Amino acid sequence: MTIGDLLDPGAVILRVSASNKRQVLGVIADVAARVLGVDAGEALEGLIDRETAGSTGVGQGVAIPHARVKGLDRVRAVFMRLETPVAFGSVDDKPVDLLVTLFAPADADSSHLRALARVSRLMRQPETRQQLRQARSADAVYLLLAPAQESKPTAA
Asked: Which of 10, 120, 137, 145 has the highest local Cβ count within 10 Å?
């Protein structure tokens, strides 16, 4: 599984303006409704519930919000880059400007945990974050993320 398996080109949104975490999550829920066909209210409620349990801000300006929602048959993703970083309660107290949001089926198995781990590993790479911040278009971001998968050690 690559990030490209989770991400639809239409689910890459750049230059988003929001003044707080709730507004950011609202925009993500609206994008998920439009592109993934889920209920925006349910998506927003799931994201807010997850943030209430603990921030998904993982540091270095990155957050990986996630929620389970009805209407999906597999894990899907939305990528968003903010114009101005917003406070997200991140582990390093830095504001967030890059978000990879995962939506899993309501009855998801452990595939959503594997997807979360894969996104987390990818977003820990400084060069990936830099490229995502410098990309000039949604298509460029999609092309950066679509083939992205962790390198695996070769067998001896």
From this structure: 145
Judge whether 156 lies within some domain: no
The mean of the pLDDT values for the chain is: 91
- Residue 90: other Cβ atoms inside 10 A: 19
* CB-based contact 57:85 (threshold 8 Å): no
CATH number reported for the structural domain that contains residue 32 in this entry? 3.40.930.10
pLDDT tens string 26-82: 999 999 999 999 999 999 999 999 999 999 999 999 999 999 999 999 999 999 999
Annotation marks residue 112 as catalytic: no
How many domains, the chain? Answer: 1
Residue 139, domain extent = 3-145
